[in-house]
Every structure is written in structure tokens, then in C-alpha cells.
Please model this.
Amino acid sequence: MDAESVRAFVMGLPHVVETVQWGNNLVFWAGDKTVGGKMFCVVDLDGGQKTVLSFAAGHEKFAELQETEGIIPAPYMARAYWVAMERWDVLPTSDLKPLLAAARDLVYAKLPKRTQDVLALPPVEFRKLLAERKKLLASGAGREKKSTPAAKPKKRRSK
Model:
């Protein structure tokens, strides 16, 4: 597989959204991140990093996959049981596709029920909600502001 075939496969999975972040990395999300989606797969498009593909492996597969030469714990994400492939030919397509689908399923299953319910909305309602949410975030109204605690009034001593 290569970056384009990974993209074509992953975008065919349900509720997957892609973004380009951190330079030129293609990030795939289980659900739109503006409604609480979480990333499950990252592809390095430049080839300037040590790895070409990182994905969520889960606790059980994490150690097993590292036994394969060319698969390492994903930088910055190993604590969340992510692995990274150092080159595209590490795994055959027939092995990689189920792992990517499982990564999406694993992350989707951990989403809060409320987020899953939003993602299950009919497409028209979901797009409307998403547009409203993005508009709210763009205006800055969706962000919580850190405020300093109000000064506590001094207590009077009774005489």
C-alpha cells in the first residue's frame, strides 16, 4: 500500500473525516473532530519523518505488531497503544486493511455515547449541526474562557 491507497480505503469506512495537520500529515478521524471525533490513523505525506504510517493498534495487537521488523511504537502515541510503520512494504495490503479498520472501530467505540449519537444522525441533520458547530467555534463562543476567581468578600467578625 501507499498513502493514496490507504486514503482510499480509510475514507470508505463509516464516519471517517480527514484533515491535513502538523506540516503535511494526513490525519484520519473517527467522526468529525469538531463534534468530538478522535484520530485513529496518520500518514506522513512528505516522507521526512522516521515513519510513513501510524495507527491505533489497541492493547492486544500493540506488542504483537512490534514483533514485525519495520513496525515500532508510534512516536508520541505509544502510550495510547499506537504503532508506526517505517516503510510501506512492512505489511501486505491484505494484513494492513483489517488493522486500519480495527483502528477506526477501536477509536469509535471509545467515543462518548453522545458523540456517537450525533454521528448517527441523518446526513442532512448532521451537516446542519456541523455547520452550526463550526460557525460557533469560528466566532469563539464555543471556547471556555479562563477567568480569575472573584475576590471573596471579607467576613465580618461578630462582636
